[in-house]
Protein: Epoxyqueuosine reductase
Organism: Candidatus Methylopumilus turicensis
Amino acid sequence: MGFSHVGITDTDLASAEAHYQAWIEKGFHGAMDYMAKHGSKRTQPAELVAGTMRVISVRMDYQPPHAKDAEQVLREDDQAFISRYALGRDYHKVLRNRLQKLCEKIQSELANYPLENFQYRVFTDSAPVLEVALAEKAGLGWRGKHTLLLSREAGSWFFLGEIYTNLPLPIDPPSENHCGNCTKCIDICPTQAIVAPYQVDARRCISYLTIELKTSIPEEFRPLIGNRVYGCDDCQLTCPWNRFGQITQQDDFHVRHGLDDVSLITLFAWDEATFNEKMAGSAIYRIGHEQWLRNIAVALGNATSQPDITNALMSRAEDPSSLVKEHVRWALQQHHISV
């Protein structure tokens, strides 16, 4: 099926529930209202899918081969940095299709056993599911201090998916934590979003600011975003465990449209039709063209001043979108140009 690891766990998330509720109460979820909805369905799987007894947790590596070195892209401030997970096709569809095939395989195997009424539902970052907590319990890895799942064999460059089922399957032992005294992810975060070990204030996180936040990016964070136009991988790039990161075996996650090595000016010139065409089938598509331009405008504001940078910004100084126009004007001010 293309999965790199699979584990099975029960539905007891009592310890994770307390941590999650405390995170919500601190307002660390920001404008992601969906994180606070659904009551206890997120922490009690049987409330989300009645009859759930077990969760089958899987991971699939996504690190693309032959992609331009991420740290080099970050150093070239006229280039666009896009989080490694979004360089290929949208993982939601890929994982859901594979999980569905796995369920069909399980169903065919059950035909040989006196067990009827196999029920299941598949998920991948698409419903109120505590993916990392379930994967940790299922033995796929441990929650790192940056809150992502870490594996001794694969670092953190992978997607997670789940199958909720009523099958009384044997469960796997949970993973042990191997972060030790390391604080590299905390230290490197450009916006200091990892406010304490295992605790991220999403309102400060560049991934949140460039993807989840739909309104104006707070000015205090704009210079810290650098050339990151979609997501941020700094905490993963610095993590020692990612020296064991695996290159994906899935063609779907290979780089598309040269997004690993492309200039900010090139992307800023895309009209909406071009954006929709190029980003079709990509996770980036969901933020839309307006938010895409907003992010790139900030990155252009952070780039080294040169005529082609300022000319690109001037071309959208009167953009019909008030959101884009605001960020373009801020960017021009960084180059000492008033409009």
